[in-house]
Amino acid sequence: MTVSRRKVLSLIGGGAVLAVAVPSIGFLSTRTPTEALKPWDLAGQYNDPRLYALSYALLAPNPHNRQPWEAELIGEGGVAIYRDKTRNLPVTDPLDRQLTIGMGCFLELMDMAAAQKGFEVQTELYPQGEQGPVALCNFVSSTAKPNPLFAHVLQRRSHKETFDGTPVTANAATSLNEHADLFLEGNDRDNLRQLAQDAWLAEVNTPDAWKESIDLLRIGKAEINANPDGIDVGGPLMEALSLIGVLNKEAALDINNPSARAPIDATTDAINSAPAIALIRTEGNDRIQQIEAGRRWLRLNLATTGAGLALRPVSQALQEYAEVKKQFDEIHDKFANEGETLQMLGLLGYGKKAPRTPRWPLEKRMRNA
What we know:
Blueprint: H1 5-12, H2 16-21, H3 25-29, H4 34-42, H5 49-57, E1 69-74, E2 78-83, H6 97-116, E3 119-125, E4 127-130, E5 135-141, E6 181-183, H7 186-204, H8 207-214, E7 217-219, H9 220-226, E8 231-233, H10 236-243, H11 249-253, H12 258-273, E9 276-282, H13 287-306, E10 310-313, H14 325-335, E11 341-349
Parallel strand pairs: 7-8
Antiparallel strand pairs: 1-2, 2-5, 3-5, 6-9, 9-11, 10-11
């Protein structure tokens, strides 16, 4: 949940309240959740090539930052990758499709990192069906060239704010075309943007769906460090609002409360400001295809970073619960061929770089180490 400084100040009537509520400048300057961000600095600091690769993989984008992956080392060169089902999103992702896409992002980034150390990852997906691991992986020596997209891993972000209005030209987007269908202008772009907005507002107005997000709020440095997943709401302004009782989960549940309206409106503004849209589709919708959609989304995100662009997922119109069925049906009728499934919808443009997202340390996501 990201709120612009302008919107935050509108909630507190300028800045006078902050001056009273915040104990000191020292407080304001120490609100970064450093523990929750350490995995970004520790990526690649492992001798075992499997741990090396996994330390990068855990930086992959994933729904609501649930980080649903778990890994288990097997023998000398094997790894089993599991999806932690306690991290499901039963309301907004009832079929676990989006979480599976997140697992695809993880696997793709693991493969890229392994290649940096001279290893190919041989992967068998769902060897025991849905009840077993998502993937059994074997690291073998390889002379294949590493993927140049890996150079952008530590700078990759999921964009959080509005875009600056600069158009995305066909030339600027050349490197992205192999990863997704792009809509840089015209009626199709506008229709996708409108469907994204309509589905977002439908989710906001669905109490169970909204509560699912609010339950995952981590407000302030202490909460984020203690639980470095979910939706982080941090920084000096957010902590000050929390201290004075303006920002808390109870207030955020009420979509008419100013502390809820600010991020709701900010997301609407972001959708409307996006000069381009990216869409990823698959020929069907089984788990293997969902994993591949995640791999493509990860590559798209890295390619976007390399092109100096920003990418933000807004896939509410692709979700499978009743309150967004209207948008789901319409977007598939207009943009999917027979038998195809639209897996990811993203806003594309230029904008301020987002901060790093909290992550659990690798050791916390290992079944053994």
